[in-house]
Write the structure tokens for this entry.
Amino acid sequence: MSWSKGPCSKCLGVLVALALAGALAGCFQPLYSEAAHPGLVEDLRAIEVQPIKDRIGHYLADNLTTDLNGTGQTPTPKYKLTVTVTTGTSTPTVSSLTNVATSATLTADARYTLNKADGGAQVLTGVANANASYDRSQQRYNDLRAARDAEIRLARSLSQEISLRLAAQLAGKTS
């Protein structure tokens, strides 16, 4: 009897794959982790996010604070992050029956600058871009809620992009 044709051949393949995955599990680590870059987590937590204008700015500042320092503690700031957001809305499709847009795309550019808190020396500057689409309807409340949900998704996307760029910059710093 051959093992390659029986039902146990699949079980054996699964067991080999699990054993291999278990053996390699310790080989991988996050790119911007504390083990790979000592002091990085502390530096990210020490970024003070300055208030950002408008509702989307509120969402973005809240997400940045959580992404950079999710502990709830407020350490002494080493860096200050200043962000300005510009948004726009486009409506690519319009219903021929009602002459009303059926969807919209919210776009945003977030210009950010990271400065040292003590002397104000610039560490990093850049622009993060994101967009979020949503369906529009004839019901006003649904339309407003969908637009607000798109703003929340947009702020989350911008926050993740900015946080990653900050981590990359601070991981590569020499002092």
Q: What stands out?
A: The longest strand covers residues 103-116. The CA atoms of residues 32 and 168 lie 7 Å apart. The mean pLDDT is 84. The first helix runs from residue 8 to 24.
